[in-house]
Amino acid sequence: MNIAIMGFGTVGTGAYEVAKTAYDINVKRILARHGREGYENLKDIITNDIEDIIRDKDIDVVIESMGGIEPARTYVLACLNAGKHVVTPNKNMLSAHFEELTETAAQNGVELRFTSTAGGGIPWLFNLMRTKRCDTITEVRGIVNGTCNYILDSMYDKGADFAEMLKIAQDLGYAEADPSSDIEGTDTLCKTVISANIAFDALLKEKDIPCYGIDTIEAKDISYLKNKGYTCKLLMNAKLSDGKIKAWVEPVACPSTSLEANVKANNNIITLVGESIGTQSFYGQGAGMLPTGESVIQDVIDIRDGTKMRYPAKQNNKYTAGECDEVRRYYIRHNKLCERIMSLVDTYEEKDGVFYCMSKPVTVIQMHNTGNHCKEKASPMFFAAIMD
């Protein structure tokens, strides 16, 4: 099988390295703006013209590892319309254009595979799809961002502040120079869209899902929760409730004995709940050059071996997004108790001018709206849902 790789950065290079060890897979073309140090021997197959891939009838599968939304989306659509299968680890593009991309693949009778978009090297989406074939999934949840988990775990273990651990995460290559996608929860949001759409045969969009990240957390939050027996993690959540999909992303105070609380460093844990199979969790490295590269090539091998994938489609859409009215209790920390925050509070403690609160049972959307209101007023608060 002849394949092409569009984008030769970290993931594209990882896919190339793994492809070299796979049976009957030949990398025929690599789309890159320039060569890559250490790969000078590939100069004959590197091109900067997408048409060299689209027009080549010998190329069966195209790996899109460019990142971002454009021109990746345009190139992927062109490949699908040219009758080529596509494999992508690009969660941003897929989350933003899920319906368009999956429908285009279906219309052209080709595969669009993306099991590395959530969980990286963990076979999460693969097993979610497999379980869904003969079971009803009722919930998916988990830690899906290794950067945030590394920061939170290090703050817990070392008592360090957020800015210090973010800088170390950047130095180690876990966080980008612009870390906003990770710490504001956008990366987790994209993975929630994709996971929920697969789990529930849905066509959710990012706007359907409330999202609050960890960018306002401080060492005092970690310390306070630790003394109460909790560890803070950033979780995705999506579940069926009253015939609707309720999905959200937020920090969660996990009991120290829970699986989630004990996920260390930059690892992930992702869980599905099925009516027949019950609860299953998947743990491991959620990112990295070779783990993600292997997941990409596993998709290529599935295509080569004729394994088909069924996409959510409008005509099969049983479930749509509902308002996120799940009721939870929250830890809240703020420097002043305005009327809006006080309306949510059950009990609080004050120490050195800082208020540490436990909320009454409130809805997810209520809590997120309050947090976003405080951010808009340049008076950011931090909150975390209390895991039962």
Layout of helices and strands:
Layout (H helix, E strand, L loop, with lengths): L1 E5 L3 H10 L6 E6 L14 E2 L3 H4 L6 E4 L7 H10 L3 E3 L3 H6 L1 H10 L4 E2 L10 H9 L4 E7 L2 H13 L3 H10 L8 H4 L2 H15 L18 H9 L2 E12 L2 E12 L11 E8 L3 E8 L3 H16 L22 E2 L1 E5 L4 H4 L2 E7 L2 E6 L2 E2 H13 L5 E5 L2
Parallel strand pairs: 1-2, 1-4, 2-3, 4-5, 5-6, 9-17
Antiparallel strand pairs: 7-8, 7-10, 8-9, 10-11, 12-16, 13-15, 13-17, 14-15
Number of domains: 3
Which CATH architecture of the largest domain?
2-Layer Sandwich
Classify the secondary structure makeup into a structural class.
Answer: alpha/beta
Q: Would you count the extended β strands for me? A: 17
| Strand line-up across the major sheet | 11-10-7-8-9-17-13-15-14
Q: Characterize the main sheet.
A: 9 strands, mixed
- The total of helices stands at 14
Per the CATH scheme, the topology name of the largest domain is Dihydrodipicolinate Reductase, domain 2
Could you characterize what this model shows?
By secondary structure, this protein is α/β, with parallel strands linked by helices. It folds into three domains: 2-113, Rossmann fold; 125-284, Dihydrodipicolinate Reductase, domain 2 (2-Layer Sandwich); 327-386, Alpha-Beta Plaits (2-Layer Sandwich), CATH 3.30.70. The chain has helices at residues 10-19, 51-54, 72-81, 91-96, 98-107, 124-132, 146-158, 162-171, 180-183, 186-200, 219-227, 289-304, 339-342, 364-376, and strands spanning 2-6, 26-31, 46-47, 61-64, 85-87, 112-113, 137-143, 230-241, 244-255, 267-274, 278-285, 327-328, 330-334, 345-351, 354-359, 362-363, 382-386. Strands 11-10-7-8-9-17-13-15-14 form a nine-stranded mixed beta sheet, with helices on both faces. Helix 1 crosses helix 12 (289-304), helix 6 (124-132) packs parallel to helix 10 (186-200) and helix 7 packs across helix 8 (162-171). The model has no long low-confidence stretch (mean pLDDT 94).
